[in-house]
C-alpha cells in the first residue's frame, strides 16, 4: 500500500519482504497418513491384480448381493428377458414342427379337424407373448396349450422351473440387500473426537458411542485395535500391524447395555500401546485406533458391525465428555446436541509410564488445578462485588439527581409557605 502511494520505494519493500521470509523458519506440514478405516466405517483398501476372477462366480449369490443396485437390477432384467426370448424360440419351434404355422391349418375344412399344440400361436410375436404368460402366470385366455404335443408339456414344465428359480434368487437378493447389517449400523454413532483424561487415578483413552434407535443391539461388545507401521528386530516392515487393547468394563463378558450413550474407557497401563506416549508426543505419532462395535439387531436377529477410527489429530489430551443424560419428570432424557462436546480438565502432560513412576505428578497437577479454580472463583467474586458496588453507586447518583430542593415563597403579609416542586 505504501509502495503504491510512492512513500516508500517499491524495491525497498520487496527487499524487506524477502529478508523477512528468509528469517522465518519454514515449517513443512507432515504428510497426512491415509486412514485404514474411515470415520463412517468404510475400509480404505483397494484390491488390485486379482487373477482368479472366477472365484466370484462360484459364489454368485454373494456377488449379486455385493453389487450396486443398478447393476443388480440390470442383471435380473436381462435374466427375465433372456428366459422369455429363449422359451419363445422354443414355443415357436414346437408350433412350427407341428405345423401350426401353416396357413391351411388356420381355416381347416369340415372333414378334418386340426388341433394345434398352442392355440393362437401363428408368429414369433405370439410365441413371445405366450412365453411371458406361462412364466409369470398371467393367463389372458387367448392362447392356451392343448394335449396334442407331449413336447410342449415338457417345455411348459421346464419354463416354470426356470422362472421359479429366477424369482427365488431375485427375491432373496433384494431381501438381503435391503436388510444388510451395515444398514442398521448407520444409526450407531461415535463421537468425532476421542479424549485422554484422568479417571480413577489413571490416564484413560475414552470415546462416546450411542444408538439412535429405540430397538436395542443385543449382546453388544466393543473392541479397540491400534494399527500402526512397525519394524521387527529382523528388519521386516509390517505396514498394518494390528494390536488389540483391552476395554475397561466391569462386566466379565465384555458386553455393554447400549440403552443410552456410553463412554467407553481404555486404561493406559503397561499393556497399552499408548503407555509411553505423552501429550507432546501424541501429535507426532503415526497410529490409528480402530473401534469395532458388534451386536445382534433385536428386530431382525442379524449380526451387525459398526466401525470408526481415531488418528492422533482427533485425540484431545486433557478433555472430558460433558454429561448428556438427565432425568426429567421421571424419564431419562438424552440430549444428542451435546453428544461430542468436551470440556477441558486437569490432566498431567506426561506419559502413563512417567505417571506410574512418579505419582506425585498427578497430585501436583490436581493441586495446581484446584488453586487455579480457587483463583478464578476469587476473581469472579471480586468482579461481582465490584459490579454490585458500581451498580449501587450509579443508583445513588441517579437518586440524588432526581431529588428536588425545597423552595420558600414569601407572601406580602410576611408569612412564609414552603412547597416542593
Give the structure's gist in a few sentences.
The chain is an alpha+beta fold and 421 residues long. Helix content is 37%, strand content 23%.
Radius of gyration: 41 Å
The CATH architecture category of the domain at 184-362 equals: Sandwich
- Terminal CA distance: 64 Å
Task: Give me the number of helical elements.
Answer: 10
Structural class label: alpha+beta
| CATH fold group of the domain at 184-362 | Immunoglobulin-like
Q: Please describe the biggest sheet, giving its number of strands, its sense, and whether it closes into a barrel.
A: 5 strands, mixed
What is the assigned CATH homologous superfamily of the domain at 184-362?
Answer: G protein-activated inward rectifier potassium channel 1
Please explain how this structure is put together.
By secondary structure, this protein is an alpha+beta fold. Among the domains are: 67-107 and 114-179, Helix Hairpins (Orthogonal Bundle); 184-362, Immunoglobulin-like, CATH 2.60.40. The chain is 37% helix and 23% strand. It contains ten helices and 16 strands. A hairpin with a 2-residue loop joins strand 12 (325-328) and strand 13. The chain starts with 9 loop residues before the first helix and ends with a strand.
Main features:
421 residues, alpha+beta, Helix Hairpins, Immunoglobulin-like, 5-stranded mixed sheet, 5-stranded antiparallel sheet, 10 helices, 23% strand, elongated, disordered N terminus, disordered C terminus, ion transport
Strand and helix map with partners:
Blueprint: H1 10-23, H2 54-58, H3 60-66, H4 69-98, H5 124-136, H6 150-178, H7 181-184, E1 188-190, E2 194-199, E3 202-211, E4 217-231, E5 237-245, E6 255-256, E7 262-267, H8 279-282, E8 287-297, E9 303-311, E10 315-317, E11 319-321, E12 325-328, E13 331-334, E14 342-344, H9 352-357, H10 360-402, E15 406-410, E16 416-420
Parallel strand pairs: 2-10
Antiparallel strand pairs: 1-3, 2-3, 3-7, 4-5, 4-6, 4-8, 8-9, 11-14, 12-13, 15-16
Amino acid at each position: 500500500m505504501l509502495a503504491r502511494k510512492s512513500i516508500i520505494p517499491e524495491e525497498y519493500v520487496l527487499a524487506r519482504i524477502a529478508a523477512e521470509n528468509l528469517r522465518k523458519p519454514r515449517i513443512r506440514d507432515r504428510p497426512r497418513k491415509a486412514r485404514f478405516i474411515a470415520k463412517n466405517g468404510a475400509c480404505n483398501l483397494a484390491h488390485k491384480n486379482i487373477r482368479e476372477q472366477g472365484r466370484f462366480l462360484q459364489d454368485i449369490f454373494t456377488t449379486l448381493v455385493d453389487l450396486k443396485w443398478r447393476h443388480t437390477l440390470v442383471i435380473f432384467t436381462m435374466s427375465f428377458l433372456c428366459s422369455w426370448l429363449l422359451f419363445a424360440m422354443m414355443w415357436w419351434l414346437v408350433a412350427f414342427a407341428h405345423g401350426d404355422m401353416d396357413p391351411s391349418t388356420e381355416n381347416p375344412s369340415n372333414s378334418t379337424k386340426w388341433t394345434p399344440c398352442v392355440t393362437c400361436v401363428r408368429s414369433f410375436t405370439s410365441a413371445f407373448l405366450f412365453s411371458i404368460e406361462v412364466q409369470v402366470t398371467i393367463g389372458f385366455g387367448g392362447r392356451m396349450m392343448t394335449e396334442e404335443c407331449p413336447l410342449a408339456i415338457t417345455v411348459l414344465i421346464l419354463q416354470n422351473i426356470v422362472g421359479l428359480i429366477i424369482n427365488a434368487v431375485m427375491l432373496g437378493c433384494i431381501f438381503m440387500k435391503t436388510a444388510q447389517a451395515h444398514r442398521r449400523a448407520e444409526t450407531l454413532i461415535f463421537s468425532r473426537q476421542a479424549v485422554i483424561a484422568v479417571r480413577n487415578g489413571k490416564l484413560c483413552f475414552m470415546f462416546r458411542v450411542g444408538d439412535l434407535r429405540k430397538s436395542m443391539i443385543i449382546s453388544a461388545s466393543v473392541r479397540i485395535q491400534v494399527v500402526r507401521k512397525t519394524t521387527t528386530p529382523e528388519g521386516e516392515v509390517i505396514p498394518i500391524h494390528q494390536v488389540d487393547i483391552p476395554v475397561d468394563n466391569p462386566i466379565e463378558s465384555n458386553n455393554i447395555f447400549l440403552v443410552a450413550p456410553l463412554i467407553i474407557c481404555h486404561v493406559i497401563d503397561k499393556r497399552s500401546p499408548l503407555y509411553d506416549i505423552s501429550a507432546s508426543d501424541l501429535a507426532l505419532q503415526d497410529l490409528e485406533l480402530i473401534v469395532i462395535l458388534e451386536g445382534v439387531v433385536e428386530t431382525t436377529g442379524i449380526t451387525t458391525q459398526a466401525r470408526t477410527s481415531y488418528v492422533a489429530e482427533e485425540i484431545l489430551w486433557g478433555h472430558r465428555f460433558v454429561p448428556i443424560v438427565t432425568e426429567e419428570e421421571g424419564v431419562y432424557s438424552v440430549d444428542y446436541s451435546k453428544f461430542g462436546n468436551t470440556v477441558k480438565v486437569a490432566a498431567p502432560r506426561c506419559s502413563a509410564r512417567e505417571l506410574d513412576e512418579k505419582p506425585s505428578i498427578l497430585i501436583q497437577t490436581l493441586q495446581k488445578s484446584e488453586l487455579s479454580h480457587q483463583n478464578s472463583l476469587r476473581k469472579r467474586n471480586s468482579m461481582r462485588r465490584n459490579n454490585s458496588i458500581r451498580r449501587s453507586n450509579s443508583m445513588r447518583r441517579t437518586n440524588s439527581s432526581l431529588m428536588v430542593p425545597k423552595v420558600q415563597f414569601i407572601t406580602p403579609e410576611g408569612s412564609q409557605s414552603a412547597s416542593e416542586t
